[in-house]
Structures are given as structure tokens and as C-alpha cells.
Amino acid sequence: MNFCPLCANALIIQNVGGNNRFSCRTCTYFYPLLKKIETVTYSRMVKDDTIHDISLQKESLQTDKDMICPACEKRGAYIRLEQDRSLDEGQTQHYICKNCSHTWKDMG
Q1: Which residues are Zn(2+) 2-binding (predicted)?
Q2: What CATH number does residue 91 fall under?
């Protein structure tokens, strides 16, 4: 995005007489575009669903002593909260069993 050097408003692209130019909507400033410049940038987000080794993080994780592990059926799990979905939906609770290190999640 380009801004007007005179009034600092955003410039728009305008076609005047077959020629493109940056124009300010507020003042009379314009800048002719003499050549076509095209830049395309693609960003790629990769979601990491793996739960990393928690042995170094145990002190910072919350615990739920009443949560029952679906794998070993024993009580006790570490909880990690994450906002996986849009903000108007609840956080996802990732559980890690204290006994067998099995991981599962509750979409909340």
C-alpha cells in the first residue's frame, strides 16, 4: 500500500486515458505508473498437531487429577489449552496422560 506524501492518505490506482496512476482521494497528488510491476507472495501456514515432549514443560502445564485416560483408564492428565478455531468458538483442550503419555483432545 502506498501513501500520499502530501496528506498521508492511502493512494488508489486510477486509470486515466488508458494510463494507470496512483491518485490521492483527498488532495491533487498523483504519481504515474510507467511500467507494470507484479509481485505475488504466497504464505503457507502449516498446522502442527504433534504434542512435543512435555518432560521439560510439566511445571507450566495445568493438571486435571480427575480426568480419565481413554487408553490406560487411569486418572490424571496434563492440560494444554489452544485456540485452534475461530475466536467465537471455545478453546481446544489437549490432554496428556500422566501415566502412559497418551494424548487426546476435547474440542470444548
Answers
A1: 69, 72, 97, 100
A2: 2.20.25.10
